[in-house]
Amino acid sequence: MQLPSSPFDLIVVGAGHAGCEAAMAAARLGLATLLITQNVDRIGHLSCNPAIGGLAKGHMVREIDALGGMMGLWADAAGIQFRTLNTRKGPAVRSTRAQIDREAYMRVVKRDLFAQDNLLVRQDSVEAVLAEDGRVSGVRVASGEDFAARAVLLTTGTFLSGLIHIGLTQLRGGRLGDPPADGLSANLRAHGLVLGRLKTGTTPRLLAKSIDFAATTPQPG
Asked: How does pLDDT run across 66-119, given as a tens digit for each residue?
């Protein structure tokens, strides 16, 4: 898709789960959509636990699917193991969970984003949300370019003033290996918004050769 001469209908900032779903939904509705992400190689990157569904968010995946969203389809395409949890308990606490191949998931997400009509993907860092007469009018990126839009959707995840804790060590970062969105964070504060923080946790990676699998119980999908 070529850059429109008139403003975009929607600019989506961030290409994680929420940003990819939003960009696909808007473009499929016929809206001229620009998706901006710091690193196109990290589109759809599963930062923490590489699973889709489960007790905490399985219902959300089903709701997204019922609304015509993509997460369930991408999970089907990149899944390693599919299980129904808590089968020995009542139906209220049962849930489907898929373990995902992280590289395969990113491939299928990028495949669909880059093939979608009405959607342009740009690698850049959004430094500011622009406003005119009290209304959002677009964004400014790190290269100094401005992009006009009727609406801007921020799906920045953990990147706003991102801080990583490893034991007692603190590192600045949106996630490990990626810089935080400090410029955008300061800009949002300048607009009068208050930034809060929710804790996320990354599961530990285990060295396979350190595990005695003979002492474990297989759980086939």
From this structure: 999 999 999 999 999 999 999 999 988 899 999 999 999 999 999 999 999 999
pLDDT grade, residue 5 (50/70/90)?
low
DSSP character for 42? G
Task: Locate 21 and state its tokens.
Answer: 């779903």
- The identity of residue 94, as a single letter, is R
Please give the helix or strand (H or E) that residue 178 lies within, else none: none
Range 154-171 burial, b when 16+ CB lie within 10 A, else e: bbbbbbbbbebeeeeeee
Contact 96, 82 (CB under 8 A): yes
Rounded CA separation 170/188 (Å): 23
Q: Which of 13, 8, 92, 30 is nearest to 58 (CA)?
A: 92
Determine the Cα–Cα distance for residues 142 and 124; give it in Å rounded to an integer: 7
Q: Is 133 left (phi over 0), alpha (psi -120 to 50) or beta?
A: left
| CA 122 centroid distance within chain | 15
Calpha distance 191→129 (Å, rounded): 9
CA nearest neighbour of 156 among 180, 172, 176, 130: 180
| Euclidean distance between CA atoms 126 and 37, whole angstroms | 8
User: pLDDT band for position 142 (50/70/90)?
Assistant: very high
d(CA 158, CA 199): 9
Nearest-angstrom CA–CA distance, 9 and 199 = 33
